[in-house]
Specification:
The complex is a heterodimer of chains A (about 150) and B (about 475). Chain A is mainly alpha-helical and about 150 residues long. Chain A has 4 helices and no strands. Chain A has a domain at about 5-50 and about 70-125: Helix Hairpins, CATH 1.10.287.3510. Helix content of chain A is about 60%, strand content about 0%. Residues about 140-148 of chain A have low confidence and may be disordered. With about 475 residues, chain B is mostly helical. Chain B folds into 3 domains: about 1-120; about 145-260; about 260-475, no CATH class. Chain B is built from 19 helices and 2 strands. A two-stranded antiparallel sheet of chain B has the order 1-2. In chain B, α1 (about 5-25) packs antiparallel against α4, α8 (about 195-210) packs antiparallel against α10 (about 230-255) and α8 (about 195-210) packs parallel to α11 (about 260-285). Classes of the chains: A mainly alpha (about 150), B mainly alpha (about 475).
């Protein structure tokens, strides 16, 4: 098979794995890793935009011009994108660490619910209720039969 | 004309020097930020009249585009660069523990925002967009609470997802054309981007840059961040940063993507944004989240308006965008003290009549009650939507009408509770003078616009004409043809 097809499959595959990971995962660290994969896929796609098999770096040494030169622009761009991506990942991990310290969980759904609660609390409004909502969970009975 | 570069460079430079300046003199560090922003605003204003007749391009380092990077200054770009500078100045961090960090972030926001508005190069747009994103994470988490950090983290995940998609879109564009200069892309677009690959690139970039513009499927972060960040920051994000992202999307749409399907995608997402935003705002029970959802709805109207083809769409969309640019920061300035449950606001008009009156003025304009500017902006959108003779555009018009009815319902509900006889048990504290002055300033600008509506509309129409003119963009930059 053509190398380029394999490479493109890799790029789109990474992008799809990344998107699926962000959308489907519940664990925060997995989501952050998925962002890393998605960025890697996008970077690979950018590199492949002008990639040619067997091209050499566009540097003229001793007056000899290479027959096939690689386009240096995407490589410079990808370098920038990688640096930005690493910075964002580090920021995400540090925020995740803070949240884990404060709330003791890395589960995205738990964080979303807790966040909702905290915002409601801070605003001073009761949790939402409706006629169709399931009945509130019975609280522990005040006195136990027989006593302890 | 090259001093316009200072609009980008000066705030960035000052931001990085600020910690050093603070070591030397904390008084200087306190004042240099606002002074620099004032200076850059003056630089921008002095260039305003020169851009009236035609746009200018600044070749950085005197390298001709497309090999060099250029800044493209037309009235639209300059207006948004000024808006981000003046908006940051108006919402300048107040006294607090983290004054130095906050000032640094605010300056970074002003610099990168101006850069984003003026940039004429796709990759520069990506880099500056990421810079704004990182700055907004810092600002959003600046309260230091766990809830604020969790909201910021959820915002960061959506935003990083969007940025990666936008980068993939840029890769597709580069693959098709081999250039990233917007003018050269505009030259090549009719032949090389008018296909499925171009459409895919547009959708990727729309969703990617749409994260900041509160586009429908990627706006889950909006209510969480606006409810946990300081109201000042929420005003900045909703008022200014969202419009910058929108400006980028509109630029790309005009220059790069001529296919009608691109407009349809934007129209449908805009309609969904208005529907979901207004319905959620109607249900919201606290002030900040009501404003957040209403801003999603308003941004939806802008997406609908910009999806009208040609100059008419740019004109109508700009009118709504500029109106929202004034109204939403003012409302968030009021939210500095009024954040929290709407029930706490009962009878608040007795204690702070000016703030209550301001809220009603802003709310009426947001709904679109004549003769306020919001009415004319919405009218313009409706007229041009119905002119399109297409059922989807007509649906957009109906949805905007329905959204306005919902807006009227929930905003009047709040406004009427202000004048209730029995006050809430825990009334909110009185507004700080600075916040109230800022909100009054914006309210006064809105009221003044009522009397200047005709000249203002002419100005905006000229601006839209200039921005919607692809050939003007290409000729102004005049990229050297590559061998």
């Amino acid at each position: 098979m053509d190398t380029i097809i394999i490479l493109y499959t890799g790029a789109f595959g990474l992008i799809f794995i990344g998107i699926a990971g962000i959308v489907l995962s519940r664990h925060l660290v997995r989501i952050i890793f998925a962002i890393g994969l998605l960025e890697a896929g996008a970077n690979l796609l950018l590199l492949l935009a002008t990639w040619r098999d067997g091209a050499s770096a566009p540097i003229i040494v001793g007056g000899r011009v290479p027959a096939l030169m690689a386009d240096p622009v995407p490589q410079a761009l990808v370098l920038t994108a990688i640096v930005i991506g690493v910075g964002i990942l580090a920021l995400a991990l540090s925020l995740a660490l803070r949240v884990q310290h404060a709330w003791g969980t890395l589960d995205m759904r738990a964080i979303r619910l807790r966040l909702e609660e905290e915002i409601d609390d801070a605003a001073g409004i009761e949790p939402p209720t409706s006629a169709d909502a399931p009945a509130p969970r019975p609280t522990a009975p005040a006195t136990r039969e027989g006593g302890a | 004309m090259n001093e316009l570069v200072l609009m980008v460079a000066l705030p960035l430079l000052t931001a990085f020097l600020l910690p050093v300046i603070d070591r030397l003199s904390s008084l200087a560090a306190r004042w240099i930020g606002p002074l620099v922003l004032l200076l850059t605003a003056i630089i921008g204003l002095s260039a305003w009249s020169q851009t009236g007749s035609g746009a200018i391009t600044i070749e950085l380092g005197n390298f001709r585009p497309p090999l060099g990077i250029d800044l493209y200054v037309d009235q639209l770009a300059l207006l948004f660069a000024l808006a981000v500078t003046l908006g940051t100045l108006l919402l300048w961090p107040a006294e607090g523990e983290q004054r130095l960090r906050q000032s640094t972030l605010a300056l970074l926001l002003a610099g990168s925002g101006s850069g984003l508005a003026l940039s004429g190069d796709l990759f520069n747009i990506y880099v500056l967009y990421e810079l704004i994103a990182v700055v907004s994470y810092g600002l959003a988490a600046s309260r230091g609470t766990a809830a604020g950090q969790a909201a910021t983290l959820r915002y960061l995940i959506v935003s990083a997802f969007g940025a990666a998609l936008a980068l993939a879109g840029i890769a597709l564009v580069y693959q098709a054309t081999g250039t990233l200069n917007l003018a050269q892309l505009a030259q090549l677009a009719p032949t090389q981007l008018n296909n499925g690959q171009g459409l895919a690139a547009f959708v990727l970039m729309l969703v990617g840059f749409g994260v900041k513009a509160e586009l429908f499927p990627v706006n889950t972060w909006v209510p969480e961040v606006y409810a946990t960040a300081p109201a000042r920051v929420a005003g900045l994000l909703a008022g200014v940063v969202s419009k910058l992202a929108l400006l980028i999307i509109v630029r790309l749409l005009i220059l790069l993507f001529p296919q009608p399907e691109a407009l349809t995608v934007m129209l449908v997402l805009g309609i969904l944004g208005v529907l979901t935003g207004e319905l959620a705002a109607w249900r919201a029970r606290d002030f900040n989240r009501m404003l957040a959802f209403s801003s999603i709805g308003q941004l939806g109207i802008m997406f609908i308006a910009f999806s009208i083809p040609g100059k008419a769409g740019v004109f109508a969309g700009l009118a709504v965008a500029l109106h929202h640019l004034v109204v939403k920061p003012a409302l968030f300035l009021l939210a500095q003290r009024w954040g929290g449950s709407l029930e706490h606001l009962a009878g608040v008009a007795k204690g702070s009549p000016l703030a209550a009156a301001l809220f009603i003025l802003l709310a009426l304009s947001l709904i679109g009650v004549p003769p306020l500017p919001g009415f004319w902006a919405k009218l313009l959108v409706m007229i041009h939507l119905l002119e399109q003779q297409s059922s989807l555009y007509a649906l957009g018009a109906w949805i905007i009408m329905a959204g306005a009815a919902l807006e009227a319902n929930y905003l009047f509900r709040v406004a009427s509770s202000f004048y209730r006889r029995e006050a809430a048990a825990t009334p909110p504290a009185a507004h700080r003078t600075g916040d109230l002055a800022g909100a009054s300033l914006l309210g006064a600008a809105l009221a003044a616009a009522v009397f200047l509506i005709v000249p203002l509309a002419d100005r905006i129409e000229a601006m839209a004409g200039q921005a919607a003119d692809r050939d003007h963009y290409i000729q102004t930059v005049n990229p050297e043809p590559l061998p």
